[in-house]
Records
---
Amino acid sequence: MLSHRLLIRSGYISQLGAGIFSFTPIGWRVIEKIKDIIRSEMNSIDCYEANFPVIQPSDIWEESGRIDSFIPPLARFTDRRDKIMIIAPTHEESVISMVRSEVNSYRDMPFSLFHIQTKFRDETRPRGGLLRVREFEMKDAYSFHSNQESLDEVYEEFSKAYFNIFNRCGIDVIKVAADSGAIGGKVSSEFISIAENGEDTILKCDECLYAANEEKAEFKKIIKNDSENFMEKSEKETPNIKSIQDLTNFFSLDAHYFIKTMVYFSGKKPILVSLAGDLEVNETKLRNLLGDDVRLADNDEIIQLGLVPGFISPINNDFDLIVDDSINLKADYIVGSNRNNFHIEGISPSKEFNIKHYEDIAKAKKGDLSVDCDESKCKGMNEYKGIEVGHIFKLGDTYSQKMGLNFSDTEGKQKSVEMGCYGIGVGRLLAAVIEANSSEKELVLDKNISPFQVYLVNLNSDNTEVKEVSNSVYSDLINSDYDVLFDDRDEGPGVKFSDYELSGVPVRIVISKRSLENSEVEILERGKEDFKMVKIKDINKELSKLI
């Protein structure tokens, strides 16, 4: 990833292990400025800063029911008292543990708390530098409410604050519907920075403005197969024809006349999944439907189940069958026969299938109409790559009900507290800013988060006049409350200018023997090709325009 290469070359970070990084002093200055912006915006919506431990007792994770279900699996160890301790990947459990002893009545709410704290998630494949790590700092906030209306209102306040945070850090984002994943809850939204090499796929309609992560995206399914009794039920020899593409060529029919069936494992249980031949399975939707992690079976496992790879049939077997709602249950389809080199024509799902679930489990794709699209105006969704920089959740009573976070309502009845959760990965945000604005040659940061405001360079450092004037200018800038990085090393111009390009600092001032001939300095604003000659006495005046 570009951000990883630049962060290493610029000396912002140092890798300690897989997905584990140290920040150098210059890198940490940027992190602290990002955190200052986050704190400012949290304060603006009356979200109060607290602090919760990284190491947590396993008891609270047993209360929430996540001790064995969190993905990736929780990192844990046994302390000297033989107690199992959790290295926190998130802090819902710990914040509830504190708040439930303080909240008694509806009068105690709403309120919001946040902290910026270390998290650890034992990712299987950490990658992309700071974009996918195991140890990281996150700002997570939690809001507490007596009713849904209050939660909805504060959720929107956090949404606006998030747009402000990302704008102040120097990136544009779009808000998209998202899957809630391991955090859970009823509704969630991600904030995505569009980037060609981003790991998230976003589907967005530019007309109706519907936007969602591919994992969550819902689309209007046009039932393309409306034909009933148009072919007799019969077996058809299909020698070594397994793929949908080969089947469409063999039968001279479009893909939606075929049903493809795959085998998944939900835990240790095999499940058959069937959908129209022109669609793909959305494994996130499938996982949410089953309430458990899923994986695609390999050929050996399929054979051990008594099924034939490439010719799996959704009929005449004892497995649970999940059917996507793209299939017209009354129409005729061609399906696998579970015999090598044979398919069956004329199968009506309503007559032949023993269906466990008939749900949306298909993956939306570019060109599909979103659920909000107006067919007369919208042209379908476009596909973008992006980086998730923030995620907010309406948790509802997902955790409060399990962990006994209750209150007395206006009638004195006990109810579970409604909760919201709001996260920003600080290092990930830095990486996303770099991905959005930088090039292989140049690390670009917004002036609000750059490590210094001014990069002061003295050339001809062996020249007494240059040295004295440079020191004087440096002192004047410091006394004028500018953050200045003074490069007075005994290096040539090429080295110093190259290091400036990797520094992320927005303004460069060069003092040289030649510039002092007219009592001037060179001032270059990042992003501009040409520098400006400015009188020494006017440096502060010029900087006030740029910074």
Note: The chain has a mean pLDDT of 92.
---
Amino acid sequence: MEYILKNGIVYDPANDIAGEKMDVMFKDGKIVSNVSSDAKVLDVTDKIVMPAGVDPHAHIAGPKLVVGRIYRPEDSRKGVTPKTDVCRSESGFSIPSCPATGYRYSRMGYGTVVEAAVPPLEAKHTHEEIMAIPNIDVPPLPLFGNNWFVMQYAKEDRIDELAAFISSWLKIVKGYGVKLVNPCGSEAWGWGMNVHGIDDPAPYWDVTSKEVIRALSKANEMLGLPHSIHVHANDIGHPGNTPTTIGTIDCVKDITKNSGVRNQTIHMTHLQFHIYNGTSWRDVESGAGDVTDYINKNKHVTFDVGQITLDETTTMTADGPHEYSLHALNGLKWANKDIELETSSGLVPFIYSGKSPVHSLMWAIGLELFLGTEDPWQVCLTTDHPNAGPFIRYPRIISWLMSNERRQEMMDNKEVHPWAHRKSALATMDREYDFNEIATITRAGPAKIYGFKDRGALTPGFNADIAVYDLNPNDIDPSREPTAIEAAFGAAMYTIKDGQILVKDGEIVKVVPSHTIWTNVKGFEEQENAIMEKVMPDFNRFYTVKFENYKVHDHFTPYPIVVDVQASK
């Protein structure tokens, strides 16, 4: 069918459209410039129209989620809804069920969500869960930062072989890009240790985090992958970690970019957790000013925030030693998992409270990052779901960004501890995001950062992934009406995915299968064959599964979107 979204107020930063009243047309699942007179008209007069949301970093599928649901039944009992004629039942708050994940993103107007940490050994299970999540496309990021083969190639500076290994493994596990979590540190956790800073070597390997980061960045650019390396830096959550973070970003500054669709050579994830000045939790203070000063002067870096939402949630990460430190800090139950030759992970429940001085400071630091970064194309909205809070709080974060009055009210009325303004600069920052900047950090920016050529914009030929919100931007003052902003962005008037109306007036009206997006590198086949011959003896020696049971076969991704890229030899 052909459709016209009539008379909406459009925010499409990728096409420099900022609040223009116009029609948006689509046909056969794609944005088009013209339609016939038979097109169906959807009257969205004076309503906000944006591309569908793109979440650049969340944990929504895979073994960590399963462990979390099993050992946190108290979370699974929240958010329970009965099935309807359209939807299956829902459950869970910080760890929603697979169907609930798709429904809730759809209701917020999102169409693409990146699964940000996939152990290759457990990629099959991750893809099975992606198949169980409806209505959103999911690019999975395999973990490489603590892989034994990667560390060996990085140690010996064998970048060509490392690139061939990455190219092979993306095809084997059907992944989109290169993810690093606490490089060398998660390997150290297998020995009950960690690394501290980028120059601390992994035990028994004699290779440092910096060497691994640089090697993976060089290989990533050699392959011309659509996304840069995606880095969860060392020393997460530790006072005094700001220099490690800046050093991580700076160490790839000289690496030449080889992608025509993005600007950066490194993407830093959940940056809020990595910019604490001080020597302990007693003298901790914000490092956001130091980091945003660096970012504002350097275009080779992008980041997502990991904004604290002041909720009870579940922390889960492939940073095993960090999760143990959280368990030691709050004394709550702890789950730990070690993935052979590849990574480790952990889970710990957590309660972020506005009464806590540290949690309030963390809340303020995230907002400082948003407000202190001059170029909205360098920053993305995330909560590192569910680590800093559930993704369903994105509308609330949007309301905070658009309302200085609300932020000041939270500090003045002691909804957050005085540390929020004593130890950060948030109280002095009166910047307020406009709707175009919101569209940038939730749609256009993440799409560009990931090198997507078919979404994140209302460009003819792009997927008809569109969100309509029941707001007239000319009749609302977001600073004075944050509750209305939160309500509107939490329940889209329309969510359209591939030209199909999935949500109307905040309710799911249609359920469709999700697509898996993965990268297929071309031009490196000879090197891939050679590297597999070298890898297989060690694979057969150290892994406890046969290679035939390791590979993700095509039936695990029945609805693939394959992104072909040409490697630079």
Note: DSSP finds 19 helices and 24 strands in the chain.
---
Amino acid sequence: MDLKSIAQFEKAAKGGRNESFRLGVGLIFVVMIMLYTSLTQGASGPQGVMLVAAAIIGGYMAMNIGANDVANNVGPAVGSKAISMVGALLIATVFEMAGALIAGGDVVATVQKGIINADVIGDTDRFIWLMTAALLAGAVWLNIATAVGAPVSTTHSIIGAVLGAGLAAGGSAAANWGQLGGIAASWVISPVLGGVIAAAFLYWIKRGITWRGDMVDAARRTVPLLIAVMVFAFSAYLVLKGLSRVWKTGVAQALGIGAVLGVVGWRLAVAWVRRRAAMLANTKAGINTLFTLPLICAAALLSFAHGANDVANAVGPLAAIADAVRSGTVSGRAPIPLWVMVVGAAGIAIGLMLYGPRMIRKVGSEITELDQMRAFCIAMSAAVTVIVASQLGLPVSSTHIAVGGVFGVGFLREFLKRRHTDAIEFIKMHHAGADKEVVERFLDGFAAATLEGKRLLLAQLKRQAAPAVLSKFERKQLRKVYRQQLVKRSEVLKIAAAWVITVPAAALLAALIYYAIFGMVHARG
């Protein structure tokens, strides 16, 4: 056996050891949940068994949320190299758990988004089977999506699962079909809004800073404004979304709080940027460093809000089962015991640490190339889109917003790159036959000009009679050669397909699991 073969064997063995370690830690967590639930909750008989099973599945669901969904909050920061993978995992873990335990709330709706009518189910045992099937189906679908590298909506996964299990348990009368229209609308609304808002922020940064001759001076004026908008947006976002379960406020009050804090943030940012500007190089790389600290803060705040909200996707059905076992009735809202919240928070943190890096890399660097400015725009789109959607009453998904923001900045870069390439080709056509030095001198002047200067140079050329060197068709073919795709199209198609099939796939899985539970229970009886 040669050295190359030995190295390949050792690499494969190392990968196997890492996978075994991850599986082992996950198994230990699940066993601890099983032991705690069976020894402390005092439930006996078939319902006690179902509670233990649901607790185990709830922990499995939480780990899958950590593995898939949390990447949207820290992926752009890692992809832009603002923070390392280890730093991102630590920040996300701490703030996800803090959000879940501090602001996760003490009561949860037993049926997400009112997607089914619990009164139609009626029977407590059927309701427990329904929720168990939904929890397991949502977790399995998230696991599948993570395995194929597709970031999907946890909320849509559990909604689809509850719908499928509800239809299996109570027939078509159990579903609130009117709610499905809003969910389907969010497939389009969330990524489009997120992409447009992220692209708008990036265009603002380019026009306000990086397209200026003196970028440092432009940054002194523009970056404090951007930070003020960020403080305003995230303050309102946290009040509306992150703290909504423990502090109920309206949109107007949230915006007012955000505005006050935004002004404070602007005053502090002016002094901070002024101190940093003296040490900055007048380059794009130098300006990028101004966005590192705001981006880290954004990642932490997004993680806190996500933990406060999405932990309910893991523990909501489990809390509903625990309440049904305790009270013997089906309720529209159920209290969340502390142990249930800890299962959700710890599961999200463990899933993130064990399996999160793959999805973080996917969102951060495998769809389009990100730097700190672009990643900042994506984080901003997440907060602003939620505020806009709340004001308009539109359903949105945080996962779809974040990934849509990645698409938005990537497609804007494609558009601007294509427009720049067209301008260069236009210049070369108008200098056909001229000396090489003349062409290069004009191109150097064009590259160094401000945005307005570039427009004037192109306008002057257009007023001149251009020689008919190439036909329209030939120019079109030439543009195709120079066109660059800065967004990986295969990832766009894969992720879009996963979004579309999430609800029906989770629904089908849940129905099958419900029928399996129903069959096992009746076979035993």
Note: The mean pLDDT is 82.
---
Amino acid sequence: MSSDHAPVYRGFFWRMLFTFLLLSLTPLIVLGVFSLRHIDAIYGEKISAGLEAVTSSKRRALDTFLTERIAQIKTLAFTHSFEELTDAGRLSQLFSVMQNNSASFVDMGIIGMDGQHIAYVGPFDLKSANYAKAEWFAEVQRKGLVVTDVFLGLRKIPHFIIAVLRHAEGQSFILRATIDMEVLQALLQREYSGRHSEAFLVNQQGILQTDSLYHGKMMETFTLPDYQRSSQRILLFPIQDIAHKDRWLQGAMMRLATMPWFLVVVDDAYESLTSLHQLQTLIMLFLVVGSLVIIAGAFFCTRRIIGHLQLSDAQKKQIDARMLQSSKMAALGKMAAGVAHEVNNPLMLIQENAGWIRDLLDEESPETVKNYQEILQSCMKIEDHVKRAKGITQRMLGFGRRMNPGRTEVLLNSLADDACEMLRAEATNRNIALNRNFDAALPVIYSDPSQLEQVLINIIDNALDAIGRNGEVTISTRKENDGAAIVIADNGPGMDEATRQRIFDPFFTTKKVGEGTGLGLAICFSILEKLGGHIGVESTPGKGTVFTIILPHEPPVVPLETDFSGQASA
């Protein structure tokens, strides 16, 4: 395809490629983005639901634990008399029973209304302790039951207590018990999904009531999120990972029912999201690989389509050129036949008059006729030029006459060899080698041998004229589909593109004036077209010319045609 059409095909290529990619990649990308977002939302909901379930379950466990401990202390205080509870041995016995049922207490004591310990059982030396100035002591006198926040107290270690006030038989006393923090801490521990997951308790002022693995120890401050303190719902909030500042964890907070503490559960979902990250990676990989495959497929398919389109346009252009050439042949054939008929009549008259002059000269003596030799030579020249002119008109008539081709078995190798033999003497005189490269397996074709021989002789003779002297012409045959091909190549001077485009035009010749009529190749083109074949030419200036003749297995069947003089021809 010529370079003039390259921008057109290039633009069409990119438009078609863009359309293919738009139609193919858009659904893939939309599906990938939808999948990533949908999966992310599902996993987010799953993690939130799991965290809420853990928080709710842990809160019930803590409330149950504290409710049972309060019930134990109240039951002990209201089912036993002051004398029993103040008896050190009896109190120790009751404490042992409680610990056997649930080892949840550290110590226990009976305190009088003056704040002085009356009886005590436990590991600390608190028998002489006085709690008159303790905040919880005054509070239990007002409320009757107190569960304190964690404080240091006389032990100087963080702890919290349950205190119950009882009035019986004119006697008032307070039963105080210290909760074992390790038991409470154990309730908060479980197998979480990540290494940085944990649970801890915080009071309303943000003071840690239990130890946190990553956010502080008991009685240290923890920053609470904005939250309605009286709300019983679960609040989900982000919390920064202390170990990895660039990561955020998922936190949940819920108020306990038994006391004004908040349960905070922190879930490190990063490790639990490993499968999600892997799935997202696979989806991204699928998108990338799928996009590359689609781009490559669209590119090669588009290039193949454009290639077929270019080939189709090239073939159409060749067909159009052949049809144009055929129409030119038909029009020029009519003109040539008319011109030949018109010219033949005066040529006959000139030839007869020249013969009559010669006859008159023969009756005269050369000595008696002035300029006898000049007149005789002029008659001979007239007869020679008339013969030459008649040869031209005969070729014009041959060009204009449309004859149906014969249908005879043709051994193409033998026919090409005969044509070479006819021109061998002329080639030898010019020192031009006629090389023959015939395919021994060439099939027999059906065609008109005389017209084919005329074509071969004409093309080989033109090759000899083009070389002039000292060169070579190679005649090759080969199988071509179900027919055959003849290739005639010379190492002559070749021709430029402008000459190659007009080589089959009637009356176009590169020979000197008087040496050619420009009808030889035009007649060859017309003959091959009638035989159902075609001829092509490739030439490079300075390197030679190659003519390729393609012949079908047999010529097409056509009805009888008439020549341009109106007579039927066979």
Note: The chain is about 50% helix and 20% strand.
